[in-house]
Each structure stands twice: as C-alpha cells, then as structure tokens.
Amino acid sequence: MSLENVISLTQKLIAFNTINPPGNEKESAKFIGNILSTNGFYVEYVSFEKNRLHVLAEKGVSNNELPVVLSGHLDTVPLGANEWSVHPFNGDIKDGKLFGRGTTDMKGGVAAIVLAAIQAFNEGKPKGGVKLVITSGEELGCQGAQQLVASRKKWGGAKGLIIAEPTANIPATGHKGGLYISVSATGVTAHSSMPELGDNAIYKVARAISKIEKFQFNAENDELLGQPTINVGRMSGGININSVPDYAEFTIDVRSTSKVNHSEIIEQLKRELGNEMNFEILVDLKAVSTNENNPFVDVVYRACNTNRDSNEFPKALPYLTDGSVLQSAFKGVPTIILGPGEPQMAHQTDEFIFIDKLKQSVEIYKNIILERG
Fold first, then answer.
1. Residue segments in the chain with a per-residue pLDDT below the cut of 50
2. Are residues 369 and 66 in contact, defined by beta-carbon separation less than 8 angstroms?
C-alpha cells in the first residue's frame, strides 16, 4: 500500500461505526488485521467483549534488538447533541480537511501507523522490527487496554512506544494520570416539613465538596507535568422537592503527576472528607513521563524536525491515553504521544483532520521505525 492510501484507509475506518458504548470494533479490527497479514505481519486478535477485538501485529521482531511499538484505538465517542453539517461516517473532504467521527481521535492516527509500518519494511530493514497494538475500549477510561494487558503476562521490552493520539504531529513526552472517584453519602428520608426526623445526605455531600475546593496535594513539583489538579465534575441527590434526601453523590477527577501516589491521594481524601463518605474508584491510570534525554526521544525529535531548544519542549498533555497502561506493560518503555489529529477537534461536532498532517504523519512514523530523520 502506498502513501496515497492513507486518506482512503482513514475513510474506510471512519465508515465503521465504533461509537463507544457499545464499541462494536470487531469488524474494523478484522479489516486492519487483514491488511497487516496480507503485508507479512503476524496478526493476533484478542477478544475484549461481545463484538469487540484488539489487534496485535508484529514483523521483523528478533532477540537481537528491541522493536518499536506503535499503538492506537478504534473506538470513538458519541456524535453529541449538535447537528453535524457533514455525514459523520462518510469521510467527506473539503478545504484540505477530512471530516468524520474519529478522524482526529484517532482513526487517522491508526491508518497512519499501519501504513507507516508496512512501508518501513518496503523501504528498509527496521532494527528490532515493529509491533502494533490496536485496542478497543479506550474512550471510557482505557478499560480495553487494561483488560488486554491483564490477559497477557509477557509483553517483552521495546526501544520506544508511540501513542498516535492527536497532537498535530508535535511530540509530547508525557501526560498526566487520571484518578476518577465516585463519592456518596447516605441518610434517612423524611417529609421536608419535618426535616428533624431525617438525615440529609445532600448536606453531607455539600460539606465534602466544600473541602475538595480547598484540597491541597502534598506533591513535589513535576518538572514535566507540573502539579496535580482536582475537580468535582458532577453531583446528584434526592428524589423530589418535599423529601429529605437519603442518598447523594458526586465525582472527583484528579489529574496526577509522576510525583504522587494514587493510593496516598485516596487515603488523604478519605481522611479529609470523613467516614460519612463512601468511595468507589472508577478509573486509576498513572501519569506517563519520559526523560527527554532518552535516545528514543532523539529519534522522534529528528523525525519530527523538532527543535529541542525551543521553549515549547519538552511538551506534556492534559488528557489520558492507553500509554498509561502500555508503558508499564513494556517495562517502563520511553513513551511518546504523537499523532496527526488536531487536539482541539477531539470529540467535537464536525470533527476533522488536516490531510497534509495525515500524510506527514506516515512519513514521521516511518522515519521513527527506520531511525532516520
């Protein structure tokens, strides 16, 4: 397959409706796997849930040198409430942009890593070979990658891991972790005209939320990721206006750094909010951080023509990726987030990707695999 096919391949991937939930990535996974196997890759499918598959592929892997690993996910977020001006699954092209759900996040990136891996073997002999990890079930908290890693005990090492999430082809050497918690309180219901007979769960939650607003992390500053943050994103409670509520809940979103321990944060929250609160951990993903002086970072910077002396580097991202799971699986491998999509277009109505960046990303990935630039 040639460079020109990255546009049509992205369009074909967009045509698969993989909105999560429910995902239904099976057919698109089989489609990608068939392309890779046809081009000499060993392909393995790993079941996730009903109609959902992960794709693992490799070529040229040996015991003499570590491979490059490239990864992306196949699921997308829902279309949203706003009406689209283009069909979200047609892959329309206009003004140098390719439109559709998943163009930026991240079917364009998946198409590019697949074609780059194929072309790298057509043009040279990649040292250590290439592995591709294409997952299902990323959008709701990387559950797919977690299940995949848990199902396989031996992942081996790698010289570097590329996560093809949208960065407009600007490499980032890390991103914050995510700790999502549901916090709830119970009480005793009563008629609102006699509140003294009840125990108001909303009041308990309100007191806890006010403590979150003043919460202070005991954290050393992370040179790459800065300080952790905390936010209350949702709250609910009660069933009607004239009852004392016996249940209320809210959510906490912590964006962490490599300098904090999630279990210690949870214990600190429990101490400060008090034993009236019940905790349920929803997502627990570590931060991703790579030393800029690592040789693999040099390879990526050269391929991207990045000036490491610029004030913009090293660069980190606020959002989560499968890198939180895969970096640990590959023994703490240097991990770079690098993809052709536009970060601000992820999850947006009329999502698009610039065609020139999509084409450029194939060359960048290929140069990383072949260690040239």
1. 1-3
2. no
- Same domain assignment for residues 326 and 337: yes
Q: CA 325, 329, 330 angle in degrees (round to 5)?
A: 120
Does a cis peptide bond (omega within 30 degrees of 0) precede residue 22? yes
Give the pLDDT of residue 26: 98
Cα separation of 9 and 129, whole Å? 23
Structural domains counted in the chain: 2
Give just the sign of the alpha carbon dihedral 120, 121, 127, 131: positive
Residue 87: per-residue pLDDT: 98
Write out pLDDT tens, residues 251-280. Answer: 999 999 999 999 999 999 999 999 999 999
Tell me the CATH number at 251: 3.30.70.360
The residue segments making up the domain with residue 347 are 5-175+287-369
Identify whether the C-beta of residue 357 lies closer than 8 Å to the C-beta of residue 106: no
pLDDT at residue number 4:
54
249 shares a domain with 317:
no
User: Could you tell me how many residues make up the chain?
Assistant: 373
Distance CA 359, CA 3 (A): 7
d(CA 368, CA 364): 6
Query: CA 359, 174, 317, 302: dihedral to nearest 10 degrees?
Result: -30
Q: Within this chain, do residues 143 and 21 fall inside the same structural domain, yes or no?
A: yes
